[in-house]
Design goal:
Helix 1 runs parallel beside helix 4 (65-78), helix 5 packs antiparallel against helix 17 and helix 12 (272-279) packs across helix 21. The protein has helices at 2-14, 16-24, 32-56, 65-78, 95-112, 123-136, 151-157, 163-168, 213-216, 219-229, 239-253, 272-279, 282-286, 325-341, 351-354, 426-440, 445-452, 458-461, 464-469, 476-481, 498-513, 519-540, 555-559, 581-589; strands spanning 86-92, 115-121, 143-147, 200-212, 235-236, 255-256, 259-260, 305-307, 310-313, 365-370, 393-396, 413-419, 578-579. By secondary structure, it is of the alpha+beta class. It is globular. Helices cover 44% and strands 11% of the residues. The chain is built from 24 helices and 13 strands. Strands 1, 2, 3, 4, 10, 11 and 12 form a 7-stranded mixed sheet that branches.
Amino acid sequence: MKNTLKYVLALAVAVPIAGCKKESKPEEGAKPAATAQQQQADLAVLEKAAEKWVDQEFQPSTLTREQQLAELKWFREAAAPYRGQSINVVSETIDTHVYEAKTMTKAFEEITGIKVKHDLIQEGDVIEKLQTQMQSGRSIYDMYVNDSDLIGTHVRYGHVVPLSDFMAGEGKDVTLPTLDIDDFMGKSFVTGPDGKLYQLPDQQFANLYWFRQDWFSRPELRERFKKKYGYELGVPVNWSAYEDIAEFFSRDVKEIDGVRVYGHMDYGKKDPSLGWRFTDAWLSMAGVGDKGLPNGKPVDEWGIRVEGCNPAGASVARGGETNGPAAVYALTKYIEWLKKYAPPQAAGMTFSEAGPVPGQGNVAQQIFWYTGFTAALTKPGLPVVNADGTPKWRMAPSPHGPYWQEGMKLGYQDTGSWTMLKSTPLEKRKAAWLYAQFTVAKTTSLKKFLVGLTPVRDSDVRSEHVTKVADRYGGLVEFYRSPARVAWTPTGTNVPDYPKLAQLWWQNISLAVEGEKTPQQAMDTLAEQMDGVLGRLERAGMQNCPPKLNPVKEASFWLDAPGAPHPKLANEKPKGETVPYEQLLQAWKEGRAK
């Protein structure tokens, strides 16, 4: 109760003044009594709306009903100067954002009087709109939800409003006192080298290992696997075990319950989403880069080396690792597994087409599975869902390649984050910031998490309600509660211009997938082109931390030095290693990474 009272008092005292000033001043020529009466009537409608939304939609919550209403009262009063205005925001199309666009905009308007047009478009289109506004200075959207992968871009070009500055300065009167920045799990992902917060996490999901626990538990399959490979069928710790399991299901088992099954799933169509398949930390899983979290230092998982905060090169010749042995190994295994162990149609699929395929019931495991598809794979009636609603599958930490070392990042985490541009007029920025905070406020965040399964708040993940329903999500909750989650991170600040560099990946990778180039040739060209972009950015100049390319040296100079780039291993397939899922789960519950 003490905490409840403290919370309500903080909200009651912290902000209403600005809203009251606006509302208490009668318009010229208006009858004060009538104006006051109308204001009271309007406020009563907004207050009723808050109660309705709390009672009928935003449950459960980590807050009490009293705390929720206090938080919404703050929104109502802080929004008073902007009542009747309209704002435009945009995000990519995923379940979480659909909920925001269809439900949360309506709630926000009824509670605050601010109308929101929340557009849903493809991720590539979001970046294109963002680039256009940055380059032209013409305001297109009042705020954007774009991936924190662009943090390096935002820091260097200076087009984005650092939220730390905004919240302490011109946006202080519209910053929620109970926002609780430290509660956001992705806080470090949206923080620049200068220590400032540049974006606000709105949703996040990781790439994890996915597998059919029901199949892995079958005694006859376990016996066959152990007899052939000499170790237990379980969650693979390394890529060697993943490969063995893929071969076992695709070539030995072949059929389960009358269905042709495969030991691997992926996608390989020549498409921009093929680039995400690699820039979303595939190389780090193999062991590209240096130790360090959230990203390797001085070499990150793209293979880009930074000296201080200045990108110095991607090629091995400049101290990078984009075309080093570990990166070539990563591409080689991707192509090999796609062709040998995945369903035949996988090679012609894009990211969005391949995502739901494991739900069809013919895939045993997937090394690189976005948990953003969790909601799609928990729907009743699917072959991978039990009659009681629990999944037949589980998710676990991704296995790592032979170049990986303890202390390196192990996978990717997508963190779509609210981003504010300086070219947007201040009044629009303030109104949009109110909406952005509303979508992640503690009043609304737990319900949104349960709809889209893309949590951003630690308090939601650890809530009593989530504990009760955790068994429906196949390990997602346990992962986010575990200390292991820190090794899954987005693209970091080493990448100085994400749009320019990201497009190079799929164009080069596709040539290796189609057999027009060897993996080494494809990565050599990619590294050379990345160095070319870094060089052009260096000559053009950037506001902060511009690239400063290292001189070209013999590859041996860098390969013989400590850290990344790493020399080629004599044995790239050590013995397979697995761990029982129950043992892994217990470690997470006890607060251990493994």
